[in-house]
Amino acid sequence: MATPGHDPSSSGSSAPQTPQLSSPRSSIDASKSPRLGASNLHIQNPSSAAQHRQSFGDLRYPPSPRSTRQSSVSSIAIQDLIDNPPHRTAPDARFAHRDWRTIRVAELSSPEDLKFIDINANVEEATNLLIDSGAPVLLLRDSQSTAPVVGTFDYNALNAYLLTAVGIAQPSEENAEKFAKMAQSAGAGKPIPLRDVRDIGRKDPVTFLPESANLTKAIETFGRGVHRVLIAREGVEGNIEVTGLLSQTRLMRFLWDNGRNFPLIEQLYSQYLRDLKIGSNSPISIK
C-alpha cells in the first residue's frame, strides 16, 4: 500500500500499466473543428462553365454566331439619330417661293456629272475611271464623241462581272457559252471589253428625260424602279445629246436641303410613316 507522498513509478518494480481506452465520441469531439457561424460561411459562386450546361444540340452543332453578335448600332444611337436628324445645308435661294413640282430636272444637274467611256474599252480601264473620278456611273458610247449613249457601267455591273468571272454567279442558259468563254479569257489575263459585259446582271434600263421635264415626272419615273435618269436635249438630226444625270439620291437630298422653301414638303418631315401610309401593311412573300 503506497504511503502518502510516495510515487509508485519511482519504485524499482514497475507494475504493468493498463492501456487507456478513449471513447470514440471523445476522439471525434477532439478532432472536430469549432462550429462555424453564419458569418463565417463563404459560398463560392459557380463557374461560368457550371452555370451553362451544354445540351446535346450544343455538342452536335457549332454555336450560332447570332448568340454573340453585337448590334452595330445601339438603341441610344438610333434614338439620337431620331432626335437629331442629319444637318441640312442652307436652302438654295434660286428655289425660294417656288412650287417644287414645277422645277425642271435640268436645274438639278450639271454636265460635269457626266463621265463617258468608249464601249470598246476594257473593264480595267472602266474600273480605274470609276475610282479616280468618283462618278457613280459611266456612260457607254461608241468611239465617236457625239455618239448617243448606248449603256451604263457602274459598281453593280462590276460586281456582277467579277462574280461571273470567278464562277460564283451563273448566267442564263442563252448566255452560258458566251460568259464561259469570257471567264476563260479573264482567267488567262486577257482584257475584257465593256461591250461583252454590259449585259451581265440586272441593270436599270437607260431612261431619258427631256431637260424641260419637271420633278413630278422624275418622281413618277423613279417610282417604277428606275434609280437614275439621263437628262437629254434633242440635238442635230434628231440625235439625243445627254446634258445631265439625276439620281434618286440627289433628288432626295435636294428636297431635304430645300424643304424650308417648300412648305408642302416641310410639313411631312415631322410626321410618322404610318400616318403617311407609306409602305404596305400586307406584304406578299413568294418562295
UniProtKB/TrEMBL annotation:
PROSITE patterns in alphabetical order: CBS
Domain CBS stretches: 200-264
One GO MF term: protein serine/threonine phosphatase inhibitor activity
Keywords: CBS domain, Repeat
Biological process per Gene Ontology, one example term: cellular response to glucose starvation
Polar residues biased stretches: 8-30, 41-54
Superkingdom of the source species: Eukaryota
Keyword field contains Glycoprotein: no
InterPro entries: AMPK_gamma/SDS23_families (IPR050511), CBS_dom (IPR000644), CBS_dom_sf (IPR046342)
Pfam assignment, any one: CBS
Cytoplasm recorded as keyword: no
Region (Disordered): 1-74
Name of protein: Cell separation during budding
Lineage: Eukaryota, Fungi, Dikarya, Ascomycota, Pezizomycotina
Gene: SDS23
